[in-house]
Every structure is written in C-alpha cells, then in structure tokens.
Amino acid sequence: MASLLPPSLSDTIVALSTPPGAGAIALVRLSGPQAISITDGVFIGKRLRDQAGHTLHYGTIREGERIIDEVVVSLYRSPHSYTREDVVEISAHGSDYIVQELLSLFVRRGARLAEAGEFTKRAFLHGAFDLAQAEAVADLIASDSQLSHQVAMRQMRGGFSQELKELRSRLIHFAALLELELDFGEEDVEFADRTGLVALLQEVQGLVRRLLRSFALGNVIKHGVTSVIAGRPNAGKSTLLNALLNEERAIVSDIAGTTRDLIEDEVSIDGIRFRFVDTAGLRDTTDVVESIGVERTLKRVQQAALVLYLFDITNTTPQQLEAEIEVLHAPAGVPVLAVGNKLDVASDAELSSFQHRPSTVLIAASRGDGLDELRETLLALVRGEGLDRTGSSTIVTNVRHARSLEQALQHLDAVVLGLEAGTGTELLAADLRHALAALGQITGEISNDDLLTSIFTQFCIGK
Q1: Which of 99, 186, 352, 436 measures 20 to 30 Å from 227, CA to CA?
Q2: Buried/exposed 195-213: b ≥16 CB within 10 Å, e otherwise
Q3: Nearest to 28, CA basis, from 96, 80, 78, 79
C-alpha cells in the first residue's frame, strides 16, 4: 500500500548528531517510519519493536557475524519524540571509523542520509512547534552567553510566538468583518467599527514598533558588541584592555607607538559579549609600520558598534578631546564613549574639566578605579531602552523576523492612513491581509518551500 506521507516524510533519515571527530561518545540518530525496524535488523539485544518508548537498551550492532560496536539504543515512539516520528538514537564509541560504518550500514538497510536541519524541519512539519520556535533551536545551540541562551530558550518555548499569535488573532477579527463588508458591497453596509479599528491598529502598531526596537538589542545579544578602544599613544589603551579582560593580553609600555596592530579578545559583561579591540595610538607619524596601524584603527572604527575613546586626563583639555573625537569620523548612530584615564594622578582642576561632560567616564585603568562604572555605562549604552532581566520581555534576534515586522508595520500604517482618508474597504482589506501575511511568515503559518529550505539548511546535519 502506497504511503500517504509526502516523499520527504515517508523516508527514514539518519545522521550523526554529535560533532564529528574522535571522542568518547558518538550519537547516530534515525527518524522516520522504518527507524525501529531498520535498527532491529542489525541490533543484537532486545527486540526493539516489542519495547516501550523512552527506554534504553544495551547490545551490539552487527552486520552478519561482524560486530561493529557495543552500543546503547534510546527508543522514542511517535508522537512522543523530537520529530513526532519513531526515533532511534544509538550511542556508540566516538570513532570516525565506527560512525562511518554505522551510517553506511543504515543506508544499505534503507535509510537516507539526512539533510541539514531535517530533523528539526520534520518536527516543524509535524506541528511540534512553529517556525520561530524552530529557528530558536539553532540560536540555542549557538548561544555562548547567559543572555543569548535566555532569549533563545524563551523563544523556543513559544514566548515570541504567543505574542505574535495574540496580535494576529485581534487583527483577523477585524479583517473578517472587512471581508464581510466586501461580500455585501452593493448594500453599502459597515460591519467593522472604524473607530474601534483605528484604536486597535494603533495599539498593534505600538507593539510591533516595540518588537522592532528590541532587534537592536537582540542583534547585540546574539552576535556580541564590537567595541574599539581608540586614543592617542600612551593614553592607556592596552592597560584598559587588560583590565577589562582581567588578563595580560596586550603589551603595556611607556614607549609611544608600542601597539601597531589590532589586538582583540572577548569578555562577557552581565551576559552580553563584548569584543574589545585595542588599536594603535592616533597621531601623525613618519614610521611606516605605525602609520599602517593608525590607518587600521580608523578603518576599524568604521566597523565598530561602540567606540571607547580613551584620553589622558592630565594632558588633555576639553577642547582637544572634542577635536580628537571629531577626527575618528565614527559612523552616525555609533555611540562614542569618552573614557578619561589616570584619575588617580590628576589634579582637582583637571578632573573638574570632565566630571560633568556627557558620555564620559573617568577611570584609573592601572588600579581598576572606575571600571565598574565603565561596565555599567557600556551595558546601558547597549541595552538602550533596557532589558527585563527576568526574561519576560520579548526580544527579536532574527533578521528575518525583523524584516517581516517591518513589512507588517508598513501595511498597518497604510491601513491607518486609509481609514483617515476614507479609503474604500477593498484597499483597507488588502493592506490588512498583507500585514497578517507578514506576521504569519514569522511563525510559519504562511510559508513556502524556498523559505523553509533557506532556514533549515543553516542548521547542522544532525539537528
């Protein structure tokens, strides 16, 4: 009897789900209608078809009389598995040879090598979660800080999806009334309360704008903040880098021009990754190598998400500071934080010149004075409107989601303008449909094969 499943879902797929290379354990995963029977044909131990789901079984994998490995088999029965299909996971010894032997054996027995992200794609197609949650799985795997893990976990558990679902359901009600008006167009009736629709749209617009504003922070959480430390020679840039990293990463010297190349390293501050870049001192020089370093510094400033301009309080006037920051030509919108160094040896008069300057923090990098305030200022600049540390705020981290929200907002704006101008119901309904479609693309309620392929091919093979 022919399978009623689509061809891709009627296959049984197999892949290595742990990183390739030698290790203690390698996990080979099968999913699909024949996952249990294929494994049963080569597993010597208990007969898997007779065992309950969510059980473990010790035995050997053999091809004929040849033992390939001693393994532990984890058995999951549909629909109580990650993919909602029958799933078998084989924990074998982490040898490249053993893994290749197992994969080849299962392919010969009727399985197909999985494509990138195909296990998660099947989970989505079987309704285990929506598209936004599926993408959060990849974000969770890639998370490398407390906040990136927190945001990915919240989205994977449906926090963002639930907020979008509520937005769409409210809009769908009014869209249905507008469509009803079109059906009775000749009778000139209005089922949708225009005043109520304007109020609803304004509320939805506000929510969408908030989500879009959160993308700047979400992008930072996901990818980190490239922060360039710039300034004149001997301002203490390398000392500051070492202090922020809490290690001797850069050479510190009283000789001007010691740093001639870029020195980079990362540190997590309250869950947000900062990539600090120590740069060559900015000055006019005839030294060919040092001048190359200065050029690289200015180029790196153009690529930065944040610039820390370090200056020596004891030999810099406020007028000189403004002129030096101007030379950086930092891109519009990139925060430039002035950091005054050597407050421990500065006079009261020198300190007073900068104490009330906006976007300025005073420190003593060599002693660590003011570093806590500097860290708090960096976090405040990055977080912008702030971040709810309880994890209850929805933060957009995905470029695709942000673009869909922008499209939705564009059509919602068109509906509001149309209502104010007395535009006909047909045009209002069309824009509202487009807004709903844009929101639906985020969760996969409206999707196509090209979109799914683009998303899931970014996953690793075994996920």
Answers
A1: 352
A2: eebeeebeebbebbeebbe
A3: 96
pLDDT tens track for 273-318? 888 888 766 655 445 454 565 677 677 878 888 889 999 999 999 9
Q: Please state the pTM of the whole predicted model.
A: 0.69
Q: What average pLDDT does this structure show over 153-159?
A: 82
Alpha carbons 76 and 119: distance in angstroms, whole number = 14
Whole-angstrom distance, CA of residue 287 vs CA of residue 297: 15
Contact criterion met (CB below 8 Å) for 239 and 365: yes
Q: Omega of the bond prior to 79 within 30 degrees of 0, cis?
A: yes
Which H or E element spans position 14?
Answer: strand 13-16
Give backbone dihedrals phi and psi of 45, rounded to 5 degrees, phi first: 175, -140
Phi/psi of residue 39, nearest 5 degrees: -70, -40
**Rounded to the nearest 5°, which phi and psi values hold at 336?**
-115, 115
230 exposure class (CB count in 10 Å sphere: 0-12, 13-18, 19+): buried
- 3-state class (DSSP) for residue 163: helix
Phi, psi of 74 (to 5 degrees): -100, 130
Sign of CA dihedral 427, 429, 430, 432: positive
3-state secondary structure at position 228: strand
**Beta strand 43-44 pairing with 336-341:** unpaired
- Of the listed ranges 57-71, 87-101, 177-191, the one predicted with least confidence: 177-191
What tokens appear for 294 in the block?
């200065």
Q: What is the token pair recorded at 222?
A: 């996901």
Average pLDDT, the chain: 82
If one compares 185 and 233, the residue with the highest pLDDT of the two is 233
Q: In what order do the strands lie in the sheet with 13-16?
A: 43-44, 55-63, 66-76, 87-94, 23-31, 13-16, 112-113
Closest CA to 309 of 361, 262, 269: 361
Q: What is the dihedral of CA 324, 327, 330, 332, to 10 degrees?
A: 100
- Three-state DSSP state, 79: coil
CA distance 145 to 239: 25
Cα separation, 150 vs 225, whole angstroms = 17
pLDDT tens-digit series, residues 224-262 = 788 888 888 888 888 888 888 876 544 444 444 444 456
